[in-house]
Amino acid sequence: GAVVSQHPSRVICKSGTSVKIECRSLDFQATTMFWYRQFPKKSLMLMATSNEGSKATYEQGVEKDKFLINHASLTLSTLTVTSAHPEDSSFYICSAALPGGNEQFFGPGTRLTVL
Amino acid sequence: KQEVTQIPAALSVPEGENLVLNCSFTDSAIYNLQWFRQDPGKGLTSLLLIQSSQREQTSGRLNASLDKSSGRSTLYIAASQPGDSATYLCAVNRVQAGTALIFGKGTTLSVSS
Known about the structure:
Strand content of chain B: over 45%
Number of strands of chain B: 11
Distance between the termini of chain A: 37 Å
Radius of gyration of chain B: 13 Å
Number of helices of chain B: 0
Order of helices and strands of chain B: EEEEEEEEEEE
Shape of chain B: globular
Shape of chain A: globular
Structural class of chain A: mainly beta
Low-confidence stretches of chain A: none
Number of strands of chain A: 11
Structural class of chain B: mainly beta
Distance between the termini of chain B: 41 Å
Helix content of chain A: under 10%
Low-confidence stretches of chain B: none
Largest sheet of chain B: 6 strands, mixed
Mean pLDDT of chain A: 91
Strand content of chain A: over 45%
Largest sheet of chain A: 7 strands, mixed
Order of helices and strands of chain A: EEEEEEEEEEE
Radius of gyration of chain A: 13 Å
Oligomer: heterodimer
C-alpha cells in the first residue's frame, strides 16, 4: 500500500514557540492531504484539508492563523503550530488519498508536547 | 451533520473468542467506510475498506459488513489473539472519495492469554 511519513514523530517545545510538522507521501502523489488531531482517549478530529497549490480549507473552530498549512508540492504538506500553548499538546496525524482513490493512508503521527 | 458511534467503548475477552465490534452512522449518504487499528501512541493501520455499494469485506480473521440503509457496520474478529489488542476505529467518507474521514471514538479491545 501507499506510504505516508511524518516528521518529527515526537516534539517537545516551550510555550510561545512555533513547531513545524511535515507530512510526506513517499511513493505516490497526493493532491489532497488531511490533518487530524487526537486528544487522549478521544477520536480523530479533522482540522483542515490541504490542497496542493491552494489555500487549505479549515474546519469550523480551527484557527487558521494558529495552524498554518502549506501544501507546496504533490508529496509534501506541512502544519505549523504557531505560538504554541500547553492546550495545543496533542497527537497530530496526517493522511493522503491516492488521486481518484477511495482509501486513505495515514502517517504515523506526531506527538506534540508544549511545556 | 454526520456522527459516528462505536459500541462498546471497551471490550475484554479471553484468547480464542470470536467478537463483534459495532459502528453506526447517522447519515446513510456515505461514499465508503473504513476500519482502522490504532496501537497506543501510534498512527492508524487500515484494516478494511467497504465501498457504499458493497455489503462486506474480508481479510484473514477479519470480516466487516456494511448496511448502509440502516447506518451500521460491524467488524467481526475470529479466534481473537493477544496481538489483536488495540483500539479499533470506524470512519466514513463524507460524500465522495478523496474527502476527509469522520471517525468514531473507537473500541479498545483487550485480549488476554
